[in-house]
Amino acid sequence: MNQFKYVSPKTKEEVLEILKQEKSEACIVAGCSNVLPYIKDKKLPAKLLLDISGIEELNYIKESEDEIYIGAGATISGLINSKIIREECNILYQAAEQFADPTIRNSATIGGNLADASPAADVAPPLLVLDAVLEVESMDGKREISLKNFFVGPRKTILRDDEMISSIKIKDDSINKNGCFIKLGLRQAMAISLATVALILEVEKDKVADVRIAMGSIAPIPLRLIKVEEFLKNKKINDEFIEEAVKKVREEVNPINDIRASAEYRRYISGILFKRAFRKLTDSPIIQLTN
Amino acid sequence: MGEYKIQLTVNDKKIIATAKAEESLLKFLRRNGFTEVKCGCEKGDCGTCTVIMNGKTIKSCISLAMQANGKEILTAKGLEKIEIGRKLQKSFVQHGAVQCGFCTAGMLMVAKGYIDKNPEPDKAEIRKAISGNLCRCTGYKKIVEAIYDVAAENHRLEGDINV
Questions:
Q1: To the nearest whole angstrom, how far is the Cα of A31 from the nearest Cα of chain B?
Q2: Residues A14-47: pLDDT tens digits?
Q3: Helix spans in chain B (H)
Q4: What is the ipTM of this complex?
Q5: The model's pTM
Q6: Looking at domain B79-162, which of 1.10.150.120, 3.40.50.300, 3.40.30.10, 1.10.8.60 is its CATH number?
Q7: Does B21 lie at the interface with A, CB-CB under 8 angstroms?
Q8: Is domain A55-171 classified as CATH 3.40.50.620?
Q9: B29-47, pLDDT tens digit by residue?
Q10: Residues on chain A bordering chain B, Cβ-to-Cβ distance under 8 angstroms
Q11: B112: part of which helix (H) or strand (E)?
């Protein structure tokens, strides 16, 4: 077994210094819910476990006049218990409530779920539709990365070796309140998503005024469905239009076969999940399970 | 290199011992005699290794021993020193909420953690609360009823105070 080292700095500054020195030798850990299984499977290339779970300055949820800030160290339970998240970006609350199980939600962090960059990361689709921006820090300074540009492949991000996510920023926007997140797993708890959909929507006079849609587990990365969004905008809502949109969803997703589901099934169910979310937000009658 | 001295409290007992950087809290506890913490899947799926750390319910197989440094841990054996713990143990026995017994330690801990935060849950809430813990005998019904009875008693007690 690999011999690891461990360090638990008390401040963000110290973390950045260690990252500058150790680069890819260091792996930031917090909730550890994925890290320990990686270690067990000998899949963690790093040598140093850089524990940030004790750093209070990374664990917060606060709002300014027009923005919400979530510290990378905020736990999933923290999101669920936050009035700000429940009221201002309920779609993230919905995802947090379906995340793993209640016990793991006490340890797992929002920053960890993003940095781990699983295509099935459940906080990613809601944050994508909320147009979240990551504040990323290193000894060289701070930069902002739109979450849309953050993921590049399964478990791969554009984060540099010496950088860490310090916070997640969400701009206040009225559309953020009308969101729906649906997770399809093989069971109700501790399920790795087969497919997820996050949809936020603004309707004006039976027309789609604005819409953002993202999905998880249906492509190598958590994906914003830009083409579907373009198709939906300014269209009049009727059954025919929704069926057309379902087709577009199935065109834009790019799923794989794995142990949990086939690509074919994921492509099919993507359309259904979209339709369910859309109907839920437009109060249309409950859909049939065909098509 | 790679080994560190840590100090923690387990069921009110002070422990000073060495832990490896990558060692799970589960392995550490079992190595130091706390074998009431059960080792199941070791990847966070089954919940039988659940303990309470500084008031928070966690799965010890996916927590680092190092992260327990300076913390207070409660395991199933520590429950007998706490009123709610004793009530839960009794209720599990009365309901026969134990078949093979492998999940029981974890179930008790998650129940204790949950009732501390939400003293009057209904059965649906209890089922959600224990959703991270597997019972492969599928004896969930009795487990839920055992926890619910303790919660219902809480409810009644609170009612008494109000009168």
A1: 7
A2: 999 999 999 999 999 999 999 999 999 999 999 9
A3: 25-31, 83-95, 104-117, 123-129, 140-162
A4: 0.93
A5: 0.94
A6: 1.10.150.120
A7: yes
A8: no
A9: 999 999 999 999 999 999 9
A10: 1-6, 8, 29, 31-33, 35-37, 39-40, 49, 51, 53-54, 100-104, 106-107, 188-190
A11: helix B104-117
